[in-house]
């Protein structure tokens, strides 16, 4: 199933520091109000993650106790015995496969839309963004019959459907990047004597690299966080972390295991995000 | 009671900038006057405007409007409309509603606000465009609408932040015409910043020259050109002729001989550099009276010619000549009219000459 | 000769590529068309009895009328859940975007916290919501109100489901809005302030209209997602009445012969409502002059 993803992360957008601006200068009351709102919002965004963090280390946490009675790592062992490692590998493979397909195809589609407008462009963009308007289970109900008749392996079917659901995001991100991209740079490089290959490697690629990374990350997330498509088309042949989370959460008394599996689902994208945030900050030329 | 706008000792520095954006900057504007703050990029002139508008909070100093200190007055209550280099017309409103914005904010009924806006569109010669989307206008038209929008707010001071520098030259002179038309009609107090001294001289009656956040000179346009207070001002205003010498009894003595200075000014005795603008030097054919000089170089500047001449070992630049076909090597005569002469303290120290050299752009 | 600017741009030709540029989109189009067009065509055919598992294909609307009452109730329930959570997400997201735009430490904090929930799969969000809001969850433990704890998970008001959608989608809406606002809103806000607009005036006359297209777009995406999403309602909801996706999945997995077309019929209804929502959003966006 598709996820809703923002096209960009705010760090890049918030370049202008408004802190010392005369407009945002606040009276005491305004400052208190704003700080309170910010604190409430921060709590809102982070609150559901708190029980996860506690349950991961709770070897024993019986009902009315507000905090775990026994701390430890038993839940990690239980999660591993339920196939957490296999699930992790499956999720990783799925995310990477979707990203590897949807990113280059999105780049090509965005280039077509940005630089080669034709009478097909409107139809192309309507089609490319259609997955956002169509719940995944609808298409999967129909495709299942088709994929079985065409004898497509179930894992390939999962990758195919998720690629279609990742394409709106990669196309959109790259379309924005190409929209801000000045063909003059490429022409300048040509006049300076660069060959087509050199223009691609030394001019185009560095210019679109940040957007490319963002598109690849979003496509990865589509594969990484999918549940429904993997269940319906994979039919159990492909085990991913969301599947394990679902089966553990549907049972009772698995709270600790659910927490460990959830953390496994959260850790890699978060690590990527932090890594991108830190390297992105260091490169002065990196502009969205 | 209208007393105009007074800026007193404004100072403002930004984190990470090599020098303060404003340093003890003081200036006063009479009601109905148009003052242009002139300075190179990064000289702090935009910061000055933003501080006056209340968009920046100064580290020290105050802004007074008609005697009232504006320190605690929020930007939206200061009665100052600003037109930026980019027109910044609200994209979600059409042309007419952009101009009517200030009235609508104040709660004026839509119909009246629009009728009022229509008259301001007329003032900037954009009548009949009210229904159009702002994205459909050209750059010059957008800037006209932005000016109309600012004026429709009935500001006590109209602030213009390089409003014409993105326009091409013909459009720019049309906008200068428009601004003088507006001044005739409404007589607002205008504070404008620009880096273009021709533009400043064309629209303003008072000039304030700023460099590195410091006010160098505030005077009429005429005086800025003919009576610079320092070598730095002279150079920033495009003066290139500097003759070292000494003043004794109102007369400047140098390699060029004795030149009486204008009598309407008390000239300080002692070492002084004689200044004369290139366009004020009269170059005559050899048989005329005057300083003998030799043309060393001629550069074409469109319809004009810029000549470099050497007289008594002093190199001078001149623009006008009555010689029919001047050529390098020709001997000519120079006349330096007394009314065109000025003198300032001699060669600045190393520190001040560094100020004139191009400086890196700082956030302003 | 004087050419208008656009013509100059076009005539400034580049070396002719081997493949016409517009065709670059074809690989992506093929995949999406296969999934979207193929999928919806097949599911529609199934729902109309044209692809039975056994027996002769026969055009009928029986699958639509078999659970007519449940279909209506489920549709209403799905609309209510998706509508409420989208409304909450837009409100909270807009507020978060305003705080993020201030750019001080609290803005950075809110931005960081909201991007934390973006990479989280919805099923994990649902599991975490369960651990937080269930009657044995963290909040019930902390406030020690065992018996009086309202049935948020599996209760009649679908509170946990709405909470999960609102939580995830508010981060999405907030980040999208912050991205669109941050690039230009400061300049427009300054201009508005100098024209006399106070804080509320700027919010009402500048920030809200400027963010309306992005708010509508991200809100529509969030609405369609929560309308057609299965796992959250399945994990945190109650057995009856069922939202459309849960109903569709139950029928799809059931063993009776008629259930496949019935599942397909529910899917078609879900898709039709989603499409209506998109068309309404587009019609609304078209009226906004800001929308290209």
Describe the fold and architecture.
With 288 residues, chain A is mainly alpha-helical. Chain A has a domain at 85-239: MetI-like fold, CATH 1.10.3720.10. Chain A has helices spanning 10-13, 28-46, 49-56, 74-81, 84-115, 121-129, 136-149, 154-179, 183-191, 196-224, 228-234, 241-250, 255-282, and strands at 58-60, 70-71. Chain A has a two-stranded antiparallel ribbon. In chain A, helix 4 (74-81) packs across helix 13, helix 5 packs across helix 8 and helix 10 runs antiparallel to helix 13. The model of chain A is unreliable at 9-20 and 281-288 (pLDDT under 50). Chain B has 364 residues and is α+β, with helices and mostly antiparallel strands. Chain B folds into 2 domains: 5-224, Rossmann fold (3-Layer(aba) Sandwich), CATH 3.40.50; 238-355, Nucleic acid-binding proteins (OB fold (Dihydrolipoamide Acetyltransferase, E2P), Beta Barrel), CATH 2.40.50.140. Chain B has helices at 45-53, 95-99, 101-105, 110-123, 139-152, 169-186, 197-203, 221-226, 231-236, 350-356; strands at residues 5-12, 22-29, 34-38, 60-65, 68-69, 80-83, 157-161, 189-194, 206-211, 214-220, 242-248, 251-254, 257-260, 270-275, 282-285, 291-301, 304-311, 314-318, 320-321, 331-335, 342-344. In chain B, the strands form 4 sheets. Chain B has a 6-stranded mixed β-sheet with strand order 6-7-8-3-9-10, with helices on both faces. In chain B, helix 4 (110-123) crosses helix 5 (139-152). Chain B starts with a strand and ends in an 8-residue tail after the last helix. Mean pLDDT of chain B is 87; it is low at 350-364. Chain C has 292 residues and is mainly α. The model of chain C is unreliable at 1-13 (pLDDT under 50). Chain C has helices at 5-11, 26-47, 62-66, 68-102, 105-117, 122-133, 138-143, 159-194, 199-227, 231-236, 244-253, 259-287. Chain C has a single domain (21-286), classed as Orthogonal Bundle (MetI-like fold), CATH 1.10.3720.10. The two termini of chain C are 32 Å apart. The chains are: A mainly alpha (288), B alpha+beta (364), C mainly alpha (292). At the A-C interface, helix 1, helix 2, helix 3, helix 5 and helix 6 of A face helix 2, helix 4, helix 5, helix 6 and helix 7 of C. Chain B: This is Spermidine/putrescine transport system ATP-binding protein. Chain B: GO terms for molecular function: ATP binding. Chain B: Residues 344-364 are annotated as: Disordered.
């Amino acid at each position: 199933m598709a996820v809703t993803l923002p096209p960009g992360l705010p760090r890049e957008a918030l370049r202008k520091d408004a802190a010392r601006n005369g407009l945002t200068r606040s009276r005491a009351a305004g400052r208190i109000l704003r700080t309170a709102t910010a604190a409430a919002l921060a709590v809102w965004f982070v609150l559901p993650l708190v029980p996860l963090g506690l349950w991961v280390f709770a070897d024993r946490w019986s009902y009315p106790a507000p905090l775990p009675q026994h701390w430890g790592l038993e839940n990690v062992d239980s999660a591993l015995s339920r196939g957490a490692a296999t699930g992790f590998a499956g999720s990783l493979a799925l995310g990477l496969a979707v990203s590897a397909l949807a990113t280059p195809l999105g780049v090509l589609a965005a280039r077509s839309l940005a630089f080669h407008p034709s009478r097909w462009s409107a139809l192309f963009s309507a089609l490319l963004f259609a997955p956002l308007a169509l719940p995944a289970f609808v298409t999967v109900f129909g495709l299942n019959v088709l994929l079985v008749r065409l004898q497509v392996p179930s894992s390939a079917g999962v990758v195919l459907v998720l690629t279609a659901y990742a394409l709106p995001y990669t196309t959109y991100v790259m379309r924005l990047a190409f929209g801000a991209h000045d063909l003059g740079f490429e022409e300048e490089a040509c006049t300076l004597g660069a060959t087509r290959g050199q223009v691609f490697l030394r001019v185009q690629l560095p210019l679109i690299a940040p957007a490319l990374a963002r598109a690849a990350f979003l496509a990865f997330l589509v594969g990484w966080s999918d549940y429904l498509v993997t269940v319906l088309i994979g039919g159990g042949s492909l085990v991913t972390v969301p599947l394990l989370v679902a089966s553990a959460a549907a049972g009772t008394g698995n709270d600790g295991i659910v927490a460990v599996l959830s953390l496994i689902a959260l850790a890699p994208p978060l690590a990527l995000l932090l890594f991108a945030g830190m390297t992105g900050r260091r490169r002065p030329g990196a502009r969205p | 009671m209208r007393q105009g706008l007074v800026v007193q000792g404004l100072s403002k520095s930004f984190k990470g900038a090599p020098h303060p954006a404003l340093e003890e900057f003081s200036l006063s504007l009479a009601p109905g006057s148009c003052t242009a703050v002139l300075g190179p990029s990064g000289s702090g002139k935009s910061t000055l405007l933003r501080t006056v508008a209340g968009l920046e909070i100064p580290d020290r100093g105050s802004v007074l409007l008609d005697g009232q200190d504006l320190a605690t007055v929020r930007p939206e209550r200061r009665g100052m409309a600003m037109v930026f280099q980019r027109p910044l017309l609200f994209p979600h409103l059409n042309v007419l509603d952009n101009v009517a914005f200030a009235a609508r904010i104040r709660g004026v009924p839509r119909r009246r606000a629009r009728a009022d806006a229509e008259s301001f569109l007329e003032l900037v010669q954009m009548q009949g465009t009210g229904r159009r989307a702002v994205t459909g206008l050209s750059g010059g038209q957008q800037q006209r609408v932005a000016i109309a929008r600012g004026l429709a707010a009935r500001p006590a001071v109209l602030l213009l932040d390089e409003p014409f520098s993105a326009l091409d030259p013909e459009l720019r002179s049309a906008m200068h015409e428009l601004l003088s038309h507006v001044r005739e009609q409404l007589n607002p107090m205008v504070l404008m910043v620009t880096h273009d001294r021709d533009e400043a001289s064309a629209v303003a009656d008072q000039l304030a020259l700023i460099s590195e956040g410091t006010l160098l000179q505030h005077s009429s346009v005429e005086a800025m050109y003919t009576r610079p207070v320092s070598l730095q001002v002279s150079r920033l205003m495009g003066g290139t002729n500097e003759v070292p010498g000494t003043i004794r009894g109102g007369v400047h003595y140098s390699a060029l001989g004795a030149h009486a200075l204008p009598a309407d000014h008390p000239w300080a005795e002692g070492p002084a550099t004689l200044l004369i603008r290139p366009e004020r030097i009269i170059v005559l054919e050899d048989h005329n009276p005057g300083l003998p000089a030799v043309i060393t170089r001629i550069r074409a500047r469109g319809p004009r010619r810029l000549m470099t001449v050497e007289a008594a070992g002093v190199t001078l630049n001149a623009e006008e000549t009555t010689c029919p076909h001047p050529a390098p090597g020709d001997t000519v005569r120079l006349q330096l009219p007394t009314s065109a002469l000025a003198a300032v303290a001699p060669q600045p120290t190393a520190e001040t000459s560094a100020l004139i050299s191009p400086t890196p752009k700082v956030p302003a | 000769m004087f050419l208008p600017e656009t013509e100059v741009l076009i005539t400034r030709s580049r070396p002719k590529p081997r493949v016409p540029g517009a065709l670059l989109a074809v690989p992506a189009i093929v995949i999406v068309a296969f999934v979207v067009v193929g999928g919806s065509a097949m599911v529609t055919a199934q729902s109309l009895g044209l692809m039975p598992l056994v027996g002769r294909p026969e055009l009928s609307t029986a699958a639509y009328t078999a659970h007519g009452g449940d279909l209506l109730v489920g549709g209403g329930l799905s609309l209510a859940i998706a509508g409420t959570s989208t409304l909450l997400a837009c409100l909270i997201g807009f507020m978060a975007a305003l705080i993020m735009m201030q750019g001080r430490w609290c803005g950075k904090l809110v931005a960081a916290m909201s991007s934390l929930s973006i990479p989280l799969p919805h099923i994990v969000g649902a599991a975490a919501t369960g651990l937080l809001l269930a009657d044995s969850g963290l909040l019930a433990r902390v406030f020690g109100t065992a018996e009086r704890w309202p049935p948020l998970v599996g209760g009649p008001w679908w509170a946990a489901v709405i909470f999960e959608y609102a939580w995830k989608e508010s981060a999405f809406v907030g980040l999208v809005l912050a991205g669109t606002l941050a690039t230009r809103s400061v300049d427009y806000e300054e201009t508005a302030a100098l024209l006399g607009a106070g804080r509320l005036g700027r919010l009402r006359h500048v920030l809200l209209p400027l963010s309306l297209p992005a708010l509508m777009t991200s809100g529509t995406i969030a609405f369609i997602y929560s309308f057609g999403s299965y796992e959250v309602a399945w994990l945190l909801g109650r057995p009856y009445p069922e939202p459309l996706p849960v109903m569709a999945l139950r029928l799809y997995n059931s063993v009776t012969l008629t259930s496949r077309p019935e599942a397909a019929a529910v899917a078609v209804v879900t898709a039709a409502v989603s499409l209506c929502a998109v068309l309404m959003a587009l019609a609304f966006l078209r009226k906004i002059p800001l929308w290209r």
